[in-house]
Amino acid sequence: MKKLLIGLTALPLAGCISFGAKPPEALLSITAAEQVPVGQAQSSAGARTITIQVPSVPQALANNRVPVQTGATDIAYVKEAQWVEPPARQFARLLSDTVAARTGRVVMSGAQSLADPGARLAGELRGFGVDATTREAVVTYDAALVRDEGGALEKRRFEARVPVTAIEPAPVGAALNQAANRVAGEVADWVGR
């Protein structure tokens, strides 16, 4: 009986104990505006291939938070905003979908590309956040492309800026999605020529 009473008195305290931060109401993600239609077969026998690597990122992007450049050397993060997964992986997937849809190339993963990598696209996602001084979502990608085995390396910087109505999770997420799709479209056009 004593054990039951002790257990019942401790029960209200169980709601007061918390391990870790309170999760955000929603997690942000980006989605490709252009994708290969469901059910459409792709074959490397009749199409060129490309391997798209997950881009490297600076430390400010090496987490699931959304950075805000508040000054020349100051970075903060959007309050209560988190990505569902790190931006580099989401951006690589968006690039893969967009390149496949726009160019007709077969996009392969690292494991699939061991036999014949085809063209190779790598790079650095230098910016994927908000510029507070201009109130814009900014996506900056430095791409490095090798079109053929043993071919020359081509480099190019891509950037898109989209106005942000408020530095809050929903408008920032929508603006970054739009900017990322713009950059991915420009990269696909560059790869496809």
TrEMBL record:
Organism whose genome encodes this protein: Sphingomonas jeddahensis
Identification of the protein by name: ABC-type transport auxiliary lipoprotein component domain-containing protein
Highest taxon of the lineage: Bacteria
Pfam families hit by this protein: ABC_trans_aux
Gene3D superfamilies: ABC-type transport auxiliary lipoprotein component (3.40.50.10610)
ABC-type transport auxiliary lipoprotein component domain boundaries: 37-188
